[in-house]
Write a structure and sequence with these properties.
Mean pLDDT: 89
CATH superfamily: Aspartate Aminotransferase, domain 1
Largest sheet: 2 strands, antiparallel
Oligomer: single chain
Strand content: 5-15%
Distance between the termini: 10 Å
CATH class: Alpha Beta
Structural class: mainly alpha
Strand order of the largest sheet: 1-2
Number of domains: 1
CATH topology: Aspartate Aminotransferase, domain 1
Helix content: 25-40%
């Protein structure tokens, strides 16, 4: 998978996979340094996290 930056990848995750992530570039003074990273928040029920894991594993295929 090839994405222009972390924002494009996060949009893809939300729209196509149903998993939300935060683009890490917004946390860097030089946004280019975070362009290959994303952040996830894991403050959900176990069932929600298990579903997110299933969806993210599908990205490997």
């Amino acid at each position: 998978m090839d994405f222009e930056d972390d924002l494009a990848f996060c949009r893809y995750l939300a729209e196509k996979v149903g998993v939300a992530a935060i683009p890490s570039s917004f946390f860097w003074k030089d946004r280019r340094q975070g362009k290959d990273l994303v952040r996830f928040c894991f403050c959900r029920k176990d069932e929600t996290l298990e579903e997110a894991i299933k969806r993210l594993k599908r990205l490997r295929s």
